[in-house]
Amino acid sequence: ATTAATTAPRRTGRGKRSASTAIQTKERKGKGKGAHNDDNGDDQPARKKGKRKSSIASQPLDTSIAEFLDGVRVMFTGIEDSQMEKKMKSHGGKVVKKGAFDVLFTDAVRRTIKFLSAVAQGIPIVSYDWIKKCFNTQTFEDPMGCLLHDKKAELSYKFSLKTTLELVCSKGKLFSGTTFFIAKIVKPSKKDMKGLIEAAGGKVVGSIGKLPADGIVLCTTKRDASSYTAKHTCASVELVLTGILRYSIDLKEFGF
């Protein structure tokens, strides 16, 4: 596997890709091994289970009233910090639990549905460093200039958050022009996988008969893929999960 490239993604396998319009993400419910469902406060980090309550927000900050977060929609993933949520709201921000958002707030790289959806759409992912800078300057600081830093996780997953987000913004969404069919049994759930694919600009068909010749079937195991490989390209769900992080459609690594 390689880190995110500086050019548009290329398949290491069969099929062609064409342009497609962006599709807004939808948060989904369900649990899976590859990514962690995080609706209704059930975020689970990739390396540690459950949310963590942070003590960072208790550190002194200049929070005199100024609505520099005017209308900015912030979504949290993997952490609970009611104090910080109140501070953001008092400065004009909107803390959202589902739907569209402008900034994702966390303290580590986590393969939650929210995190992957944000990466897929090129939405900036920030930590406490960003909001502290906003408070200290009393202005809205560009979140793309204050992105989350988690070197250990980026080395582990072999990607660069900054590079991937920049590629999505400059080259377009990863799965634009790519059509998928999702096998009956996959983890994460079909709903979550569909949401991630659509967040990354892809299309999901409901039956194998509607899948074009250059489409991709997502399966859990090679045995599951044996029912489809004669006519279609098959791949594991990691083609989507890891692919989104790396901005790469790597059929050589994740194809069956």
Task: Please describe the topology of this protein.
Blueprint: E1 52-53, E2 73-76, E3 79-80, H1 82-90, E4 94-96, E5 103-105, H2 113-121, E6 125-126, H3 128-137, H4 151-157, H5 161-171, E7 179-182, H6 190-199, E8 203-205, E9 216-219, H7 222-225, E10 233-236, H8 238-246, H9 251-254
Parallel strand pairs: 1-3, 2-4, 2-5, 5-6, 7-8, 7-9, 9-10
Helix pairs in contact: 2-6
List keywords for this structure.
256 residues, alpha/beta, four-stranded parallel sheet, 12% strand
Description of the molecule:
This protein is α/β, with parallel strands linked by helices and 256 residues long. The protein is 29% helix and 12% strand. The protein has helices at 82-90, 113-121, 128-137, 151-157, 161-171, 190-199, 222-225, 238-246, 251-254; strands spanning 52-53, 73-76, 79-80, 94-96, 103-105, 125-126, 179-182, 203-205, 216-219, 233-236. It is elongated and about 60 Å long. Residues 1-8, 13-33, 39-49 and 53-64 have low confidence and may be disordered.
